[in-house]
Amino acid sequence: MNPDLGRLMDAVVAEERATFDFEHPADDAVLYSRVISPLRRARRLAPVAVLGVLLALAVPGLALIGLAGTGATTAPAAPSVAASSSAGSSAVGDPEAVAGEAGWTVAGLVIDPRGAATPLADSVGPVVEEPVACGALEAFGRLVGRADGTAPVHLGAFVSSGGGANDVHVRSFATAGIAAEYVGELWRIARRCADEMGGWGVAMTVARVDAAGLPGDGVAVAIPVPFTEDAWRLQVYVDGASAIAVVSDPTAADRALSITRDWAAGGLR
């Protein structure tokens, strides 16, 4: 096994064990949303200099969910079920919401904190379960691994009326260097997965994120669904120590770049 993949999978096992032990994994998203209101009130009522003081006083638990960029200790809220296939999100949009807040809207869809993408194997089929390297891609989509004292936060998903989702996780790594190494690991592992999938006749693509004007770096992955024109897509993007991952269901329009641009333009980190 590739040493990078081995290290990542060891970390994934540890993260998944922590998730299993966590009684209510979906509560991360709820807690994250509850933190948003005091953040927004402070932003509207105070200058930037005062905002830092208000955050320290009003949200003492902020660091626990990784919003402040320091070591987060909560377990990742890894969704275990697919997004609802009956209808789009019932969440209410907020025109003043920035990326990451409740009410965040992209392309007319409002983020649903309970929404989630369909698991990779269910989306692409059993062929993706054969190559060992491909098994790590879903973990990258949840930003798990690289145990550095921080943990990802599942914001939810932008769910279309047909049920397809663009699922979003964010994480503030301990340092920008660790975040860059994480993207480097994804690049190497995804390319190995692509080589192995090629042996099964699946033309998977791995590319750097084409996001002109954005300061960070990222990797975009697309795995075609056999006998269709659809693909399961993953995009991981880092800006400094902050990272955002978007997994797009084959049945959903790929909104990853729009979501990432919105977040990079001033979303919560």
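^ that was protein a. below is b, sequence first then the tokens
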Amino acid sequence: MRQRIILILLVAILLLPMWFIAGQGEPSSETVEIDQSVTDIRPVEGFIDAPTKLSPSQVGVIVWVALLALLGVLALFHRFMNELARPDGDTPPTAADGGTVGFDWMETEDRWIVGYDPPSDSVIGLVAMGGLTALTLVFSALFTGEYLTFARTQYFGIYAFGMFMSLTGLTVSYYAWFMPHIEVAERRDH
């Protein structure tokens, strides 16, 4: 709990000055719009009403907050997938012969295997990976279609986010369901 509070305080110390500077913003100016009598393209139309003009400092703060939020989402997603694939994985079982599970290249005089949890190789993992692969293909097709055609609305960011999160899900799913989890103890001289 103490580490979380320290982490939140560090992030706040870094972000508060940036928020203050970003709050100043740029002076207001006239909005430039596309002539709707010529074309139907609406590049700023989206799901949420958003400001049409931001200063570089405001964009910087938004990007940093988005990156920190993405880091938190990825960490939670990784824990969720690992718990889903190995619900009893809090303490991996030790091998029956005292830690030797056939990885001789991993063991030395100062390092040995103390726990081995084999991959589950379940059908649920295959279904999850198949669904995430299909989702990745859909988002990449939408992204490509948005780029190559005259788009009526431009959702590049949403499609790219969906594509990259699907790829992240594929990576985490493979790790959770199809990779063994090995716990290694190592003797160190300090």
